Amino acid sequence: MQVDPYIYFDGRCDEAIAFYRDALGAEVSMLVRFKNAPDPSMIRPGTEEKVMHANLRIGDATVLVSDGRCAGQPNFQGFSLAITAANEAEADRVFTALSEGGSVTMPMAKTFFSPRFGMLTDRFGVGWIVLVSP
């Protein structure tokens, strides 16, 4: 069994994919636009070019993404995505890249459980935890 996060960017998915490519080296393994939907009733006017579904590979993980209902109001509450970096330099690089245009909740620092740990919300409102295993 595998559990993958599915994130709805409510109309900003292309922008999010480009951001995660730059910040995390995300690779798109699949992308389907609403205009390619087999059921035309799924296509609302103005959403034809929006992302219906995409698979992103980030390291060893798969993150599924979509524009969803394209209402322009993404709302992410009650979860964060956690990245375990290979070392402190990588953790700092990823944290800095993800926080660009977002807000830092807890700056990167040494904690009792990690040599580098930090929390942020990216420019899309997605919560992230970046850490290095002890």
CATH 4th-level superfamily of the largest domain:
2,3-Dihydroxybiphenyl 1,2-Dioxygenase, domain 1
Structurally, how many domains make up the residues? 2
Share in helix: 10-25%
How many helical elements? 2
**What multimeric state do the chains show?**
single chain
Which H/E pattern describes the elements? EHEEEEHEEE
Radius of gyration: 16 Å
Shape: elongated
Task: Tell how many strands the DSSP assignment holds.
Answer: 8
* Terminal-residue CA separation: 27 Å
Q: Mind sketching the topology for me?
A:
Layout: E1 6-8, H1 13-24, E2 27-33, E3 51-58, E4 61-66, E5 81-85, H2 88-99, E6 103-109, E7 117-121, E8 127-132
Parallel strand pairs: 1-4, 5-8
Antiparallel strand pairs: 2-3, 3-4, 6-7, 7-8
Description:
The protein is of the alpha/beta class and 134 residues long. It has helices at 13-24, 88-99, and strands at 6-8, 27-33, 51-58, 61-66, 81-85, 103-109, 117-121, 127-132. The chain has 2 helices and 8 strands. The strands form 2 sheets. It has a 4-stranded mixed β-sheet, covered by helices on one side. It has a 4-stranded mixed β-sheet with strand order 5-8-7-6, covered by helices on one side. The protein starts with 5 loop residues before the first strand and ends with a strand.
Summarize this structure briefly.
The chain is 18% helix and 35% strand. The chain has two helices and eight strands, in the order βαββββαβββ. It is elongated.
Offer a few descriptive terms.
134 residues, alpha/beta, 2,3-Dihydroxybiphenyl 1,2-Dioxygenase, domain 1, Signal recognition particle alu RNA binding heterodimer, srp9/1, four-stranded mixed β-sheet, 2 helices
